[in-house]
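Please annotate this fold before class:
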Amino acid sequence: MENASPLHLQEVVFSTGNRAAGKLISELESAGKLRKIAPRIYSSNFNDNPDVIIKRNLFTILGKLYPGAILSHRSAFEFQPTTSGQIFLTYSYTKKISLGSITLRFLEGYPPIEGDLPFSGELYVSQPERAMLENLQVSRQSGPQSKSLSTRDLEEKLEAIIRTRGEQGLNEFRDRAKSISVQLEMNREFAILNKLISALLSTHPSRILKSPIAMARAIGNPYDATRIALFEKLFIALNKEEFILIPDKNKSINAFRDFAFFEAYFSNYIEGTEFELEDARKIISTDTPMQNRNEDSHDILGTFKIVSNKAEMNLIPRNPDQLIEMLLYRHKVLLSARTSKNPGLFKDKNNRAGETYFVDHGLVKGTLKKGYEYYQALKHPFSRAVYMMFMVSEIHPFLDGNGRIARVMMNAELTTADQAKIIIPTVYRDDYVGALRKLTRQAEPSAYIRMMLRAWKFSSTIPGENFDIMRSYLEECNAFKDHDQAKLKFRFP
């Protein structure tokens, strides 16, 4: 549909072979209501730089000046000029045309076929299967000058198809590409594509693959690349810091057990499993669930059973497979009463918290194994502990109990190194959740590290040996209050 606005109000106006229209444009230009910004292109915008106007209206311009052209090759995936200003189009001739700072690279080829997508005016976009074949053509240029994306980029696009549409979806993609390759005489390109897809599906050796995420898929450990990039940021931030050591002073049997009670109590409380302190104490001391609250009672019992066991808490993973074994075992103990939440099994459907979507259930094992690589490179107990806690929390590998398991794994790191364990008291919950959310959504690790360091210092001041003294101290620190009632207070030595 043509723009119905008067010409002098349109940001881009095109000259045509129509004499009347050409005369009107000339009159408006003479009157200072239009200006020429490129061959055959005029604008009523006298404020912005012509290049800015062209970039803003690029696809409208292409559809008007080059009807039937196809946004193709890498441009069909990127929908923007490369860093060197290249846009690639399939057309009726091969030619380079400058349009402001953009270089239009026209490549002679077949016109639109069934399945190519109408885009802007008479401009089309290569359908994904055609674009994939185009990107597998030989290119004489490299980098941003090349018409083709790298093999690694293409492999990752294929891996994304498996992740979102499954193996059947990738096979359907291959079938459609094969049909197109016959139409467009791209048999060589399809042969390459077929090998890549076969490698991803493990029906051919994966050594031809270049992308780490594609190789992981081929060997059966696909992972969430976005989360791994986030873990890398946390790893780098932790590696830059120098942390003190805070030895655990609650090492006797009684002190360790009393601390474990509050550890289990607060860990469940901040997840919404709330008990009066005396009720929780009775559940644990008698090993008997509270009437009418069987599942909640077992949650706190399961958490306590793990964190009060010194032998268990002195176990940390020495390889990725052990990490998975420990997570599954500890989750089975912690959530033993919630059979609907599949205790001891990774999630079989995706989960979310508010606007945050956690790792796809099919990528849990691979993301844990890949994330382990950064964990094993950390040396300081605090760094390893808070990295492990965030990694498990961010992956959210289970249907329920993820926060509690993450904190169990964190404190096992500290216990193994004879360091003070960390409690997240009720009053500190909003600080804790807020810092986690900031790291998840903004990839900002500093607030998370500061928050966890403060929680560690606070936890190290909690006195042991006597339950009532420990409880009184926590009350003095406002640990049991909500965040809008008080602030966490303590004096670190």
Observations:
- DSSP finds 20 helices and eleven strands in the chain.
- The first strand starts at residue 13 and ends at 14.
